[in-house]
Structure formats: C-alpha cells, structure tokens
Specification:
Blueprint (H helix, E strand, L loop, with lengths): L1 E9 L5 E11 L3 E6 L2 E6 L3 E11 L1 H5 L14 E5 L5 E4 L2 E2 L11 H4 L10 E2 L12 E5 L3 E3 L5 H4 L2 H13 L7 E5 L3 H17 L4 E6 L2 H9 L4 E4 L12 E6 L4 H10 E7 L13 H6 L3 E4 L18 E4 L12 E4 L2 H8 L11 E6 L2 H8 L10 E9 L7 H7 L3 E4 L5 H10 L1 H11 E6 L3 H9 L5 E5 L4
Parallel strand pairs: 12-13, 12-15, 13-14, 15-16, 16-22, 17-21, 18-19, 18-20, 20-21, 23-24
Antiparallel strand pairs: 1-2, 2-3, 3-4, 5-6, 5-10, 5-24, 6-7, 7-11, 8-9, 17-22
Helix pairs in contact: 4-5, 4-12
C-alpha cells in the first residue's frame, strides 16, 4: 500500500510548514515513511493506516518546542480516526512492543509498564506522525473502536484517560478536600473525572476549582465542582494548607509553587511545560516517568503505586547523601556515571534496568537521577518509582514541602479503555463533557489560527477537523 499526502509540520520557531509524506508498506512486512522524498522513519510490522477525522490541541502541543523531541514533525495526539472499514476509532499514543502486539515483549512491557518502553515512539509527540496530518500509522493493539460514542465526545478520550490516571494514582479518600488548580483544557476534565469517580466509588469528598478566570470556574461548576474560588478576588495566604490534594494543571512554575502553598498533604503534577520549577529542570521528565518525590524515611523506602504488586529491592544513593540506613535493601552508591554502568551491567541482566528507589540531597541530584545523560531519555529510577529527598531544603518550596511530610506525585497517560467505558456507560456525562470543554472547531487548513485560539485564555479545548489540503 502506498499513500502520499501533504501535512502541516510544527517547527522549532513556533510556526507551521507544509511537507510531503509517503507511507509505503503493509501491516505484515512493515512501513517506510518518506518526508519530502527522503527517508524519515522505518517501522516494522504491526501498524495500520488510519484516516484522521478530528484531533485536539493540548498543552503538550503548545509547549512541544520546549520539550526534548525532534522538530519539525507532524504533531497532534488526541485523535479520532477511521480504519479501512470506516469504523471510527481512538488511538493509544504510545508505540511500544505491547501495542504492536509483538510476541517478543520488552522487559518494561513484561513488568506491566506498557507505556514506558524507553525506545518507544509517541504519536504526534516523538517522531511518529500525528493527528494534524490526514493519515496516521497506529500500532494494531492501540486502535480502539468508539462504537456509538459521538466523535466530539470521543476526541476527549485521550486527555480524559490522562486525568483518570491522576485520580487513580492520587485517589481521594472519604472526607478529603480537593482542588484543581488551572481548570482549563486538562483541568476541567480533571474536575469532571473527580466528580464521576466520586459517584462510582461512593466516596464523599469535596471538589474545588481554583482559577483567576470566572468563565473557567463557571464551567467547572457545571462539570461537578462543589466550590469555585477566583484567586484574583481572595487573599491566597488565607487558603494555605486548605486542601488535602491539589491537582496542578496550571502549566506554570508559579502555579505549581502556589499549589505547594495551598496543599496540606499532596500536590499531583499533570503539566509537561518543559520549564524549570523550584530549581528542578527535569520536572517535565518527572511527569513523563510518573515519578513521586517524598522525604527520606524508612517507610517511604517501600513506596509503590497502589495498583502495583511488587517490592522495592534496589536503592541508589546519590553522592551528596549522608547518613542513611536502608535496612535490607540492596544498596548502590557512586557517581551518576557509575550508576548508569551498574544498570547496564550483569547485575541487572534480564531485570528492569532501573533502581526501585533513588535518594538525593539537592535539586541538581534530583535532576541527575531523572536524566543522568543530557542526550538520553533514561532515568536511573524506574517509571512510577520514587525519589527520596534527604538534604537541606532551605528556601526551596518543593523540598520544604516534602521535608514537612508532603507528597509530590505525577502521572501521564491513562488507559483509553477505562475512559471509553465511562463515556459509553454515562451518555449524559459524555455529552456534557463535550459541550462544556470544546470551545472551538477549526478546519485543518486553519491550523495556525487554531493554535492561536488554543493559546487564548478565553478558549477551552480547540479541535481541528480534517479536510484535504
């Protein structure tokens, strides 16, 4: 099969060019992707061509020039497409052996970390041409029919799955007071996700939306928030330690620092802005790897996600850390270069090549644990693992927060099947989501205008709809 098309590529100068692409191959033998008649990407078997119908613009798209991914490329990952039988589908964005239905699974997939294979491509984010093009190539197992769901609801499946991942990773407890900071594109979905989780779990907790914009607060109220606070009209110091968990979707370092000030127990970070936060430069990668930051205690050495049935066995202690006792764990010390050598050596053969826990004494050491190699994408600590801080937190808001017993957690992609199940079983909820969250729909030839609209603080979710270029 051979398909040629023109598509808008996003560039490092924050604009769009048109490039010509060609997909040639088939699902059994693999695919050659050409860009402007030059080899661009070679894919093995296990992919299908889909025709794109709708694609949402998200904060990652708007910030991608700050992220460590190659440009120019065709971006866009919140996709509704159709297959060769004209069946409408959504697409899991992570291209890994698990989603290609490869019988030879990598160690990350065998550990249940299907979305964390280091060599993965990511639809519309990292090399795999995305949904702002008229056609995409998607792994076989990543393609999920939407059945009877309206496609303008279905286009929200990927970001809705991401917010349900946050609710799953940082589950509210009975009686909790929760807040969503920055309820715009992702944040409004998170308000809705907390609301539907409250109904399904039968837990009684309160949801508050925090924003400087009354229009966003009105939307949050309609999506299930019990209380809405306009931060421009109150003394934020009076809200200090008011919320058990704050889910930060503000997309800014100042927003995150405000979340630390207002949270009593936990801040859950959802933003991948590419910006430094509290002297930590790798917070985007922290979110991508779904890591957790806690203070050092013996109890925290055993931290795992509730959904994971495993034990922490290996601990890496960074060079600046002094006077720690880790019980019966297997301990590794040394430089960050030494740690990388250990992980690539015999001791970790046929094991996940990451430490279960890492202990750091400074922001620089936290950065080095998350990405020890400036050119690489591999952390020293496992995805969904924990970094423990033991050092001087003075004048650093994030370190002072964890040193006082707070938790900083993060999450990335969620299970599209979980999100679709909720949308299918509650049509009223799904329709409300689309009605309140989607503010603009543009034809694909107005993609530049759509991006301008998405950056406008008056906009919510902006969708592009495909026509031929």
């Amino acid at each position: 099969m051979e398909i040629r098309f023109k598509a808008f590529e996003y560039t490092a100068t924050d604009d769009f060019n048109i490039a010509e692409y060609e997909f040639e191959g088939d699902s059994n033998s693999g695919w050659q992707i050409l860009r402007n008649n030059q080899p661009y990407l070679q894919l093995g078997p296990g992919y299908q061509i889909l025709k794109t119908r709708l694609c949402g613009i998200c904060a990652t798209d708007l910030a991608i020039r700050f992220l460590p991914h190659p440009l120019p490329q065709i971006i866009g990952h919140e996709v509704v497409a159709q297959d060769d039988q004209n069946q409408k589908v959504v697409v899991e964005i992570n291209d890994t052996p698990y989603y290609r239905d490869d019988s030879n699974l990598d160690i990350f997939s065998r550990e249940g970390l299907y979305t964390h294979t280091p060599e993965r491509l990511t639809l519309g984010i990292d090399r795999l041409p995305g949904g702002f093009g008229p056609y995409i190539l998607a792994p076989n197992k990543a393609i999920i029919p939407i059945d009877a769901i309206n496609e303008y609801c279905a286009v929200l499946t990927e970001p809705f799955a991401a917010v349900m991942q946050a609710v799953s990773a940082s589950p509210p407890k009975e009686g909790d007071s929760l807040a969503v900071l920055g309820p715009r594109r992702l944040g409004s979905l998170l308000v809705a996700g907390l609301h539907v989780n409250r109904k399904l779990s039968k837990r009684n907790y309160r949801i508050c939306a925090l924003s400087n914009h009354s229009s966003l607060l009105n939307i949050s109220k309609n999506l299930g928030a019990d209380n809405c606070i306009n931060l421009s009209e109150v003394d934020v110091n009076a809200l200090e330690n008011s919320f058990d968990i704050i889910y930060d979707t503000s997309g800014s370092s100042t927003g995150f620092e405000l979340a630390l000030h207002l949270a009593k127990n936990e801040v859950h970070l959802k933003s991948t802005s590419g910006q430094a936060t509290c002297s930590i430069h790798k917070m985007t990668e922290f979110v991508v790897d779904e890591l957790t930051l806690l203070s050092f205690t013996e109890e925290h050495l055993d931290f795992t996600w509730d959904s994971e049935n495993r034990q922490n066995l290996t601990v890496y202690i960074a060079p600046g850390v002094r006077d720690v006792h880790v019980g019966n764990k297997v301990v590794y010390r040394g430089s960050f270069a030494d740690a990388r050598k250990i992980l690539s050596g015999r001791e970790f053969h046929n094991r996940l090549p990451r430490f279960d826990v890492a202990i750091a004494s400074s922001p620089a050491e936290i950065d080095a644990i998350i990405r020890p190699d400036s050119k690489g994408q591999e952390s020293l600590v496992r995805p969904r693992g924990v970094i423990l801080f033991k050092g001087d937190p003075t004048n650093n808001p994030i370190l002072e927060f964890v040193n006082n017993g707070g938790r900083v957690r993060s999450s990335r992609c969620g299970d599209l099947n979980v999100a679709l199940k909720i949308l299918k079983e509650d049509k009223v909820f799904a329709d409300n989501l689309a009605f309140y969250v989607i503010s603009h729909v543009f034809p694909i030839h107005e993609l530049g205008k759509a991006f301008q609209s998405a950056r406008d603080k008056r906009s919510m979710k902006v969708i592009v709809k495909h026509i031929e270029l």
